[in-house]
Design brief:
The chain is mainly alpha-helical. The protein is built from 12 helices and no strands.
Length: 272
C-alpha cells in the first residue's frame, strides 16, 4: 500500500485518461490500455532519441573505453575515476539509456493499482462495458494464471522483452547482454499473478521498443568517427607504457658522414 500512496498522483491522471479513451473514443477497456501505452511512449520519444544518440556515442568510443578499462584492471578505484573522466571529456552519458525505463516503472506500478480495484471503482460507473480483448482475454482484471490466454500473453511478453532488451543492450558486454535478456524468464515467476491488463500494457511497450529499434536502425544516421585521442585516452599498443610517443628511427648517415667514418678506419693503416 506504500507504493499505492506514492503513485497516487500518477494513478488519477491514468484513470482519467482511461475513462476518456473509453467514453470519448468509444474504445473497450483493453484497447484503451493499448492506446494509453502508445500515448505514454509518444511522450517519451524525445528521451528515446537521446538514448539512441547516447548508444551511438558509446559504440563510437567503445574501443577506447575497453582499452582504458584494461589498462587499470588491477586498480578498480582508479579505473572508475578514469572511466568517469573519459565520459565527461567525450560528453557521453552512460545513464541516458536507463531514463525511458526508469520513467515507465512508476506508470507500470500505478496501472497495477488502477486495475486492482478497477471493477469496483471504474466499471461500476459503466455497467455492461466489456473487459475482454479480441475474444481472447476474458477480462483485463483477472490474473494471468487464471486463463489460458494469460499464458499466451506471458509467452508474447517473454519473446518481446528479449527482443527489446536486444536493441537496448547493443553497447553492453556479451555477459551483461545475456543476463539482461535472461531476466524476462526470471520475472515470469513474479508477474504470473498480475492482472492481464498490466501484461497487455507491458507487452505493447515491448513491441513498440522492437519496432522503434528496427526503424531507428534504418533511418538514424550512423555516428561520426571518434574524435582524436585525448591525454586521458590509453596509449595504443605501439606506444610506451607512460603514454609517450614511440621514438622515430634514426636517419641514415649521409655521404659525408660515411666518408668521415671510412677515413677514420683507414687512419691506422696509413701510419703503417
Amino acid at each position: 500500500m506504500i507504493y499505492a500512496g506514492l503513485t497516487d498522483p500518477i494513478q488519477r491522471p491514468l484513470l482519467s485518461l482511461l475513462e476518456w479513451l473509453h467514453t470519448a473514443l468509444g474504445l473497450p477497456w483493453a484497447w484503451a490500455i493499448i492506446a494509453l501505452t502508445i500515448l505514454v511512449r509518444i511522450v517519451l520519444v524525445p528521451l528515446m532519441v537521446k538514448q539512441i544518440h547516447s548508444m551511438q556515442k558509446l559504440q563510437q568510443h567503445a574501443p577506447e573505453l575497453k582499452a582504458l578499462q584494461q589498462k587499470y584492471k588491477n586498480d578498480k578505484q582508479r579505473q572508475r575515476e578514469e572511466v568517469m573522466r573519459f565520459y565527461q571529456e567525450n560528453k557521453v552519458n552512460p545513464f541516458a539509456s536507463c531514463l525511458p525505463l526508469a520513467l515507465q516503472i512508476p506508470v507500470f506500478i500505478s496501472l497495477f493499482y488502477v486495475l486492482k480495484n478497477f471493477e469496483k471503482t471504474v466499471q461500476a460507473k459503466y455497467p455492461g462495458s466489456d473487459l475482454g480483448w479480441l475474444h481472447v482475454v476474458p477480462s483485463i482484471t483477472e490474473q494471468i494464471n487464471s486463463h489460458w490466454s494469460g499464458y499466451l500473453l506471458l509467452a508474447i511478453y517473454v519473446v518481446s522483452q528479449v527482443a527489446s532488451s536486444y536493441f537496448m543492450s547493443t553497447t553492453m558486454e556479451k555477459s551483461q547482454r545475456i543476463m539482461l535478456m535472461a531476466l524476462p524468464v526470471v520475472f515470469v515467476f513474479f508477474i504470473i499473478r498480475f492482472p492481464m491488463g498490466l501484461m497487455l500494457y507491458w507487452t505493447t511497450t515491448n513491441l513498440w521498443t522492437v519496432g522503434q529499434g528496427l526503424v531507428t536502425r534504418r533511418l538514424m544516421p550512423k555516428a561520426p568517427p571518434a574524435p582524436k585521442r585525448t591525454s586521458r585516452t590509453p596509449p595504443k599498443p605501439d606506444d610506451s607504457g607512460d603514454g609517450a610517443k614511440p621514438s622515430r628511427p634514426a636517419p641514415k648517415p649521409g655521404p659525408q658522414q660515411q666518408r668521415v667514418r671510412r677515413r677514420k678506419k683507414k687512419g691506422p693503416r696509413a701510419r703503417r
